Amino acid sequence: MPIEVHHVKSKLAVAYQLSHLPETASYIPDTELLHKRSLNRMTRKFDKVYLKPDRGRKSRGVIRIDRMNRGEYKLRQETRTKVVKANELWRTVERLTGDTKYLIQQAVNNVTRGRELRHFDLRCHALRINGVWKVGGICGRLGEKGSVITTSHSGGTPTLLETLFTRHLKYTALERARMVRRLNKVIIHAVRNVSRMYPDLWEFAVDIGIDTRKRIWIFEVNIEPLIRGNFKMLPNKTLYRRIKRMRRLAK
Ligand SMILES: Nc1ncnc2c1ncn2[C@@H]1O[C@H](COP(=O)(O)OP(=O)(O)O)[C@@H](O)[C@H]1O
Ligand SMILES: [Mg+2]
Fold it and tell me: Could you give all domains of the chain from N- to C-terminal order, each with its CATH number?
């Protein structure tokens, strides 16, 4: 399949590309362009889905839909919640999404363990130095209690990977080491392939979810990643400084 070269950010184009490559296909959640038929199909196939603006960032406009009993659906956007009947679902979604191009994606069950279930994900920064893609750092993000997103702009807390894995996911040392190895492999496969769509860019960030069965999922690949709202906010600035150093060498 030919690789299309892109100049603007498109979550859908990236998901489509990665879902057709053997190295990355199994990490891409089921993703489609949002329209009435895909909404019907996806809400029947999955009990939770995310709607995201194709060119969105900072979790703006992200909506989650949960299928409930009695043919009802719960929609959540930021702190707002709305329950609607099946026959009102498309009309409600149309109203919330307006003219913006959206995608619909299978939800990943990315919750922490223990008493307090919180959503989390990983921000994984990668840079190209002398033609070789390297992982600059991985940072955990813990969502606010009750929130379905994790970015710091919406109450999420950037968290050291070690803390996330040990305290919030209860991984053993062996599980931690194994997960970090798997993550590094997935990140490099993803950015190497996305860089064929954006050959001039020398840094990307992959947003990754891990489900309760330790399966790795790629939510999106960011093409102009900032480190202020995540790595800079960690209690330990080692990774932040490391990425800044690597940026000076990257091209
Ligand atoms: N398929 C999904 N399953 C579970 N959570 C998701 C999914 N997609 C997105 N999210 C949550 O929403 C946040 C924003 O989604 P993302 O695709 O990264 O878009 P943005 O460009 O707004 O950052 C993610 O950081 C994650 O917390
Ligand atoms: Mg993101």
Answer: 31-106 (no CATH), 110-249 (3.30.470.20)
88: which strand partners?
none
Mutate to test the pocket of ligand 1, among 52, 217, 224, 230 (most ligand atoms within 8 A of CB): 52
pLDDT in tens, the chain (251 residues): 567 777 678 999 999 999 999 999 999 999 999 999 999 999 999 999 999 999 998 899 999 999 999 899 999 998 899 999 999 999 999 999 999 999 999 999 999 998 888 999 999 999 999 999 999 999 999 999 888 888 888 889 999 999 999 999 999 999 999 999 999 999 999 999 999 999 999 999 999 999 999 999 999 999 999 999 999 999 999 999 999 999 999 99
Cβ–Cβ < 8 Å for 75, 90? no
Q: Which atom of ligand 1 is nearest to the CA of 110?
A: 4
Gap from CA of 174 to ligand 1 centroid (Å): 28
CB burial of residue 145 (10 Å; 0-12, 13-18, 19+) = exposed
- The closest residue, in CA terms, to atom 2 on ligand 1 is 107
CB-proximal residues (5 Å) to ion ligand 2: 207
3-state secondary structure (DSSP) of residue 42:
helix
Q: What single-letter amino acid sits at 117?
A: L
Q: Which ligand 1 atom sits nearest the alpha carbon of residue 105?
A: 1
